[in-house]
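QA checklist item 7 of 12: single-chain prediction sanity check.
[x] sequence parsed
[x] length recorded as 416
[x] structure emitted
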Amino acid sequence: MTTQPGVQQQFRYWQRRILISTIAGYALFYFVRKNLSVAMPAMEQSLGITKVQLGLFLTLHGVLYGVSKFFFGFPADRVSARWFMPTGLAICAIINFLFGSASTAFVFGVLWVLNGWFQGMGFPPCARLMTHWFPPHQLATKMCIWNSSHSLGASLVVVLCGYLVHYNWRLCFEVPAALAFAGSILLFLFLRDTPESMGLPPVEGTAARAGQPQRGVLRLVFCNRYIWLVSLANFFVYTVRYGVLDWGPTFLKQSRHIDLTKASWMVAAFEVSGIIGTLVSGWLTDRLFGGRGARACLFYMLMCGGALFLFWRLPHAPVPLSAALLCTAGFFIYGPQALVAIIAANLATKRAAASAGGLTGLFGYFSTVLSGVGVGWMVQHYGWNAGFIMFIAAAGLGAVLFALCWPAKPHGYDES
């Protein structure tokens, strides 16, 4: 990046604008994705839908989302993010409107699967933008700031729906859909694509082999063993993360006998704690571990597993203590959730960042086979203890896989 003052000023302006726009835009994707978790107890009661059916919705949605995140990673590396991201958000909003009007389990399932597919248009353009606008030595910190969009969107929508569900569970889909559709229009107005599309030079340290052929670009992703290891670790990260996020309101209401509105606030606190944990993990990665995110992830997964163990083993603890343990788990699970994509993007370089993010996302959202229908089936037959044993085991397995990535380099630009 040039040192001319005028260019630097433009860069700083657009970096801030891109960062804020993608945070807001991706948070709105959560408005039309995580609204189901609050509506589930009411749907179960009013429509007679079982936990296994609800778990199946979550699993099919997650699997299709993982596949689509991988699929859309390839065009997202080549198509303007200004068009790509708002289009996906608008489609998801329309599907949520239709979901709020449906009445049968089959229609719910079809619509939620479609929603999962088009949700895959959210992350890949963000990965493209972040790796084009920020240099590798800043990427962990900046992308962890961006990653707060996950927790911001999820926490806001569970609180919003925690109030809406008392009027009508269908409002949990219709109101977030209206907000997301309006947001898609604003997102198009505020987003831009790469620095080069704005007449600016590429960021420092990312110009290696700009003309690399497509086969070479794909090798950056598929021939790097550490990208495969962190992708597999992401399966277990998301098992824990979505297990708590999707089933938390139902568990707290049915097992701990906590009012649904209060339960929604507790899950929101889990998310807010995740924002803090994410920001700290980015700082630790850049400042303490020299950009080697897998080392921070190892520590985080061990601490998350410990917090979940205490939460599980203290069923009669006062609500504030239970909430504190849940917040601790949220603090530590969201560090790896953010860093996995950063590790993969840095190793693959900006030429294949969205594709690498798609691969990690594919593994992450295939975890809904466990966190969705797997948890639903186990809880239906063996109770909530079985579900928590699964979450704790997942945290341990994720820690093992991150430990195997300890020797990984901070980025792949020297090799690309």
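[x] summary fact logged: The chain has a mean pLDDT of 85.
[ ] second reviewer sign-off
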